[in-house]
Amino acid sequence: MLIETVLIDTNLWHYAYVLPKEDNLGSIHRETREFIINILSDSSKKVAISTYQVAEIIDILRREKVKEEIIEEILEDFFQQNKFIIKDITSSIVRLCAKFSLSSNIHIYDYLVAIPLKGIVTKIYSADDHFQHKDFKEIAEVINPISPWILREGRRPERR
After folding, report:
1. Domain-embedded: residue 139
2. Distance set, CA 154 to CA 64, 82, 148 (Å)
3. If phi over 0 gives left and psi between -120 and 50 gives alpha, with beta otherwise, what is residue 85?
4. What is the rounded (10 degree) CA torsion for 42, 45, 51, 52?
5. 3-state secondary structure labels for all residues of 67-102
6. How many domains does the chain have?
7. Among residues 13, 16, 35, 95, which one has the fewest Cβ atoms lying within 10 Å of its Cβ?
8. For residue 97, is it within any domain?
């Protein structure tokens, strides 16, 4: 069986594990959670993740007051399950991400999630419209699994 390796952007992890703050946004959280569950249960897929993104996910879930046990379980899964490929961040990757960020005016954090996985992933799942930029599409095919919703950290979800 062929194994496909994918990246799941932080915004999707966030919406999958955090309870909706507004009743009318519950469907986004349910859709996102279902999407993550389907990827994690699909034996033909692996999830690649940078060490930066591990920290980002854990911190966002902590700030959103997700139960500590759930966060610890997610962290253990990242490092203990064969489902995940963890890629370390090096200083040369940080420098490259900074150059891309300065050129595109997209914050460096998106680059720290994706650039380390170039050549590893074949698909990037993200609902952040920044990922529609050519820099990310050169890494892998970019798919918004909850389209038409756009999710950006610090902003209210919007429908396009």
Report:
1. yes
2. 12, 32, 18
3. beta
4. -80
5. CHHHHHHHHHHHHHCCCEEEECCCHHHHHHHHHHHH
6. 1
7. 95
8. yes
Distances (CA, A) of 158 to 64, 134, 149: 20, 22, 6
Q: How far does Cα 104 stand from its chain's mean position?
A: 20
Residue 98 near residue 117 (C-beta atoms within 8 A): no
What is the band of 148 on the pLDDT scale with cuts at 50, 70, 90?
confident
pTM score, whole prediction:
0.94
Per-residue pLDDT reduced to its tens digit, 90-110: 999 999 999 999 999 999 999
Question: How many C-alpha atoms does 120 have within 13 Å on its Cβ side?
Answer: 19
CA dihedral angle for residue 23, residue 27, residue 30, residue 36, rounded to 10 degrees: -130
Identify the CATH number of the domain in which residue 79 sits: 3.40.50.1010
Domain that holds residue 100: 4-149
Specify if 154 maps to a domain: no
Q: d(Cα 134, Cα 8) in Å, to the nearest integer?
A: 18
Domain membership of residue 29 (yes or no) is yes
